[in-house]
Amino acid sequence: MDISILVAQFPVSYSIDENLEIILGVLKQSKEDDLVVFPEGSISGYDTELSFLEKIDMSKVTYALEVLKSVAMEKRIHLWVGACLLEQNRWYNAALGFSPQGQTYRYNKVNLATHERNTFTFGSKLVTFPLQFNNQIVNIGIQLCRDLKYPEQWRWLAMNNAQVFLHLNNAEGDSSEQPIWKSQLISRATENQRFVISVNTASKQQKCPTIVINPKGQILKEVISDITQFFRLSLDLGLVSDWYIKQSRTDLININLDKK
Questions:
Q1: Which of 73, 89, 210, 234 has the greatest number of CB atoms lying within 10 Å of its CB?
Q2: What CATH number is attached to the domain comprising 122?
Q3: What is the CA angle 35-81-92, rounded to 5?
Q4: What is the reported pTM?
Q5: Does residue 224 sit within a domain?
Q6: Residue 255 lies in a domain
Q7: Bridge-based pairing state of the strands 195-199 and 164-168
Q8: Residues with Cβ < 8 Å from 243, sequence gap 6 or more?
Q9: Which of 11, 47, 66 is nearest to 199 (CA)?
Q10: DSSP-assigned beta bridge partners for residue 84
Q11: At what angle do helices 178-192 and 151-159 cross, to 10 degrees?
Q12: Which residues have CB under 8 Å from 254's CB, separation 6+?
């Protein structure tokens, strides 16, 4: 089975209105049953300097998410965006998915950066999301930014039937780190024999490219740029395999990867 993906990076800003306008512009190019992915914080904005949270108008964030849910249903697409959300005086760094059928999915970032931990609330669970494509279910696993550094999370998702990993990212800073982040993404793909779709904010100082990698560890597309760019690819899910997972030496080590 093949699925079509539309991957879009853009310079995520503090302006919710501008972010939404760019996203809606990209969505004009989407086709029915596309899996469409944008960066971490793509609605609310994101920064390692957390004072940006004070500027977020949650009513605008809520409105933008409602608009995108409606567009996903209208255009019959599977849409994933990122947003910082304030709920009961707690901040969450979340990825949100909207289905053609009207479902809303959500993943709260599990592994917060050290500087985030006094401000954001940890996500409490890993989840695989079943998306309906042409009368077939495709299971999606979501990770955010530094979740990349914890391969056991990705293995758990793979063992719980994830076929495609979405990695919503907002990593700016020392661009010399690009080869490191890229190699880790390739490892997450090939060690789990899953597709990896990683979407970063567009920036002159990208720590990580926007990149799509197949289960063999081969790069299908890579973008390093400070401008809005998007591309479409077809993924052959027949390449997804449990060959390596089934050969794990669980008699020697088992890091709580049992299905729950």
A1: 210
A2: 3.60.110.10
A3: 140
A4: 0.95
A5: yes
A6: no
A7: parallel
A8: 193
A9: 11
A10: 93
A11: 30
A12: none
CA distance 94 to 96: 6
Q: Give the pLDDT confidence of 215-260 residue by residue, as tens digits.
A: 999 999 999 999 999 999 999 999 999 999 999 888 887 765 554 4
Token readout for 200 is 């970063």
Closest of 70, 67, 66, 61 to residue 42, by C-alpha: 61
Phi, psi of 225 (to 5 degrees): -165, 155
In a domain, residue 257? The reply is no
The Cα 70–Cα 233 span in angstroms is 24
Write the pLDDT tens digit of every residue in 30-80.
Answer: 999 999 999 999 999 999 999 999 999 999 999 999 999 999 999 999 999
The candidate with the shortest Cα–Cα distance to 145, out of 191, 101, 114, 176, is: 114
Q: How many structural domains are present in the chain?
A: 1
Query: Can you tell me the distance from the alpha carbon of 73 to that of 100, in angstroms, rounded to the nearest whole number?
Result: 4
167 φ, ψ (degrees, to nearest 5): -120, 100
